[in-house]
Amino acid sequence: MFGNSSSHSGAISHNEHRILRAPLNPSFSKKSVTKLEPMIRSKVEKLCERLQDFWQTKDPVNLRYHFAA
Q: How is the chain split into domains, by residue range?
């Protein structure tokens, strides 16, 4: 999977995963994600404006960096 044919054998137990995941949990709480919404919305609006510019000029768009963001 994802360029690593042996990725299925690298799985860890549920307990180990829970322990490793614990420090990241606050970042994915509903409150934390909701706090990010205005920033994400502004970035999406900026992207939409740029795409509108490309649509009007009929210039090709390289979305490589947009998808990476």
A: 7-68
